[in-house]
Amino acid sequence: MKSGFMKIELNKTLWEVPERYQNLAPVGSGAYGQVCSAYDSLRNFKVAIKKLARPFQSAIHAKRTYRELRLLKHMNHENVIGLLDVFTPSTTLDDFQDVYLVTHLMGADLNNIIKTQRLSNDHVQFLVYQILRGLKDYLNHRWGADAELDFCEVPIILANTNYCDVPIKLADFSDV
């Protein structure tokens, strides 16, 4: 493990992160990784850290990891989650197994907001507008201006609980 890193266990998974990330707490997990929240002491705000699950176990996993990193690094749109940091605790290529992605922490996903809040027509229009803006930029970046998005390839949509004041963001491009 690199100097300046610390180890912490969350949900029976060992996390090795730079000491600047404090107060780690589990947020969720999926097929391709786990996510925790943390306080970034250098930026002075909370972030989301995604630990990719077995990012290099096969060619398919490696391509998925590369694709997600490339998209997050190059996408610059207020409705697409941005990449703040990428790190590994490994010190040698032989030990290189884990990759961590750091993004802004969003308060909820769109599914949670729909289930827990009554939305007016204006709210729905505003949310759809933001989703379409993010998808348009994503499609243009991924496949060019004439691309079509397959239904199974839709990224996760994140929002803050005050979604009317803060833009929603497309996230989790590991599957697309």
TrEMBL record:
Residues reported to bind ATP: 51
Domain of life, source organism: Eukaryota
Catalytic EC class: transferase
Identification of the protein by name: mitogen-activated protein kinase
Nucleotide-binding as UniProt keyword: yes
Cofactor(s) the protein needs: Mg(2+)
Family affiliation: Belongs to the protein kinase superfamily. CMGC Ser/Thr protein kinase family. MAP kinase subfamily.
Protein kinase domain: residues covered: 21-176
Signal among keywords: no
Pfam families cross-referenced by the UniProt entry: Pkinase
Gene of this entry: mapk14a
Entry coiled-coil feature ranges: none
Keyword set, alphabetical order: ATP-binding, Kinase, Nucleotide-binding, Phosphoprotein, Serine/threonine-protein kinase, Transferase
GO process annotations (BP): response to osmotic stress
Single GO term (MF): MAP kinase activity
Catalytic activity, EC: 2.7.11.24
